[in-house]
User: What shape does this take?
Amino acid sequence: MGEVIRKDAPADDIIGDVRATLHTASAKGGSLRELAEQRLVPVLTLFDGVEAQRNAARAEAEPLLAKVEAESARADDALAKVADDVWNAVGRPTADPALSILFPGGMSYFADHEDGDIPGQPDRLEVLAQLLGSGIHPKLSLDKAQAAAAEVKAAAAALRSTVEATRLPLERLSVLDRIRAAVAKSAHIELVHLKRLYKAAGFSEAEIHAVIPDRGRARRRL
Assistant: This one.
């Protein structure tokens, strides 16, 4: 016995089978076509509408994400410069407890590659700027500490502005991804209902799966 594509298949695969079914049924005509159009055209129309919105949202989000990556790289460069300047200013020590407070485990915690968390990087940089400006290192003069803090704070502000510009587009894309998946599940249900209608109309399994792609599980080899 043939099988309709599984309900947990990727959305693209489900919609691909729905389109293929409608195309084949339309070519065969008669009740095969009539029933397929009745069940599948509405859900495909809905899916295509969502897909158009999703593509538009992706087109909006992608260049913004590229800007975030570029701004994060600039923030990393500024952070590396500040870390090097501070190290030089306090005498280039091989070990320094006060530096460990400013840069616990090195500068990587404040960079974007720490867990790949770019959205959280501006906050981490703000904390570093506050630590630098507080004069926590006894060998770092106040003017140099405040200059370093200003550099870090400026990098944080520029990155935060870029990150904020992506929030709504990314959220829109995320919602549309979920809607797309939900419509694909509905399309699967319609495909299952169509097969039942074909059976009720007297079509054999072979005739049905000459229209609906047969996704029966492959048998295990002994």
Notes: Helices lie at 11-28, 30-89, 97-102, 121-133, 142-200, 205-208. Residues 11-210 form one domain. Confidence is low (pLDDT under 50) at residues 218-222.
